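for the recovery benchmark. tokens below, seq after
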């Protein structure tokens, strides 16, 4: 998406927006629900393994963003199903499995690279399993998790969150399950960090 390229290009060129009053609803963010913000501070990322801009975001922005989250804020990563046709659903299951087995660090960037750098095709769950095993995940643990209640629940939660937030493009970021960030409105990575902090203090 162009908005991520704009954000990347502006990373070192434009000054930090330090005045919180400069952040405007409808410009820098929108409110996606009338419900109160989540009690527990949360930054939710929506992404797809089939999105090249999500790959760039994962490599370039997520590591420093994780390091600069407000104190007590946790990161939740939701894979969306609407990119990649039937494989979008399969990759959501793959991410749910990685989350359940706590092997996200082993899987995320290598799987992005397999798809976008190596052009490795994935057409079914057996190929996904082979990828996980090659990454060091026990095959039996993968099989036990693949169709488990917990993985099905994680998938349902990701889909419900995506629909509730009205996500139609990725990567996307939402603060405290209420404030959806418009990254195209930001001029630098520092502004993104500042906006996350600003939105975390609302409500």
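predicted aa per position
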């Amino acid at each position: 998406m162009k908005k991520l390229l704009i954000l990347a290009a502006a990373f070192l060129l434009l000054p930090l927006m330090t005045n919180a009053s400069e952040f405007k609803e409808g410009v820098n963010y929108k409110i996606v629900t009338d419900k109160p913000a989540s009690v527990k501070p949360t930054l939710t990322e929506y992404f797809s393994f089939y999105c090249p801009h999500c790959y760039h975001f994962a490599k370039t922005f997520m590591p420093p963003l994780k390091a600069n989250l407000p104190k007590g804020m946790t990161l939740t990563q939701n894979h969306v199903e609407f990119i990649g046709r039937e494989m979008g659903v399969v990759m959501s299951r793959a991410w749910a499995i990685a989350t359940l087995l706590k092997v996200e660090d082993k899987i995320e960037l290598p799987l992005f690279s397999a798809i976008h750098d190596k052009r490795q095709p994935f057409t079914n769950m057996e190929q996904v399993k082979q990828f996980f095993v090659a990454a060091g995940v026990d095959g039996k643990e993968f099989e036990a998790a693949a169709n488990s209640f917990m993985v099905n629940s994680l998938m349902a939660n990701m889909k419900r969150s995506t629909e509730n937030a009205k996500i139609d493009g990725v990567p996307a970021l939402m603060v405290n399950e209420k404030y959806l960030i418009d990254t195209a409105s930001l001029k630098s990575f520092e502004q993104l960090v500042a906006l996350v902090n600003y939105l975390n203090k609302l409500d």
